[in-house]
Amino acid sequence: MPTCHSTNDVAADLYKKNKIKAGDIVIAAEQTAGRGQRGNKWESAPGKNLTCSFFFQPSFLEPSNSFFLSIFSSLGIYDYLSRFDDRFRIKWPNDIFFENKKICGILIENAVRGSNIHSSILGMGLNVNQTAFKTPGAISLTQIVEKEFDLAGVLEEIAQSLEKRYFQLERGEFDKLKKNYLKKLYWINEEHTFYDIAFFKGRIVGISENGRLQIRKESGLTEYDFKEVRFIR
Asked: What are 162-177's pLDDT values in tens digits?
């Protein structure tokens, strides 16, 4: 579609109407109200980037393992981008960074039925051909590689990368997925400055079983949920 409010919202509406099936993709040339984690807005120039939502039905996955949806999806997109440069990293929980600039954001919204996840909508905003941003700290693939990309081709290759990682998830290869995720995690085992209720220095050392970020600081190991800690420098 040429434009929509949010591809995640469109996918959710199609799900309610039973008009979407596993593997379908909702894509828009422009989102007028693209969303990121916890209500953050996503900037994207019309026709320059990929703004889309993938629909999955991971009924094999219990809600307690829902963070593996962030793991598989960020790894799938990382796998595609890492073909061009080895400096891409996954910023917890599921953003993709190039050095200290954001190139991709992911928003995952799940619906639970009984004891399993019945549906999962994976919204992705990937900066591809945009060359100027109002948002500080944003970057695009064309700025890194210095060439323009065919958006349909990029989408096809990312879909293939996501499918490979999804099959790992479906096979229950949780340990392997988590190990791959931690290996590519932004700031892992490096001393940096963070902020919770005050500034502090610490090292990211891992993630908990439910996806909380583990930071070791002077006072000991602390775990954080989304938006409970900020990355400073």
From this structure: 999 999 999 999 999 9
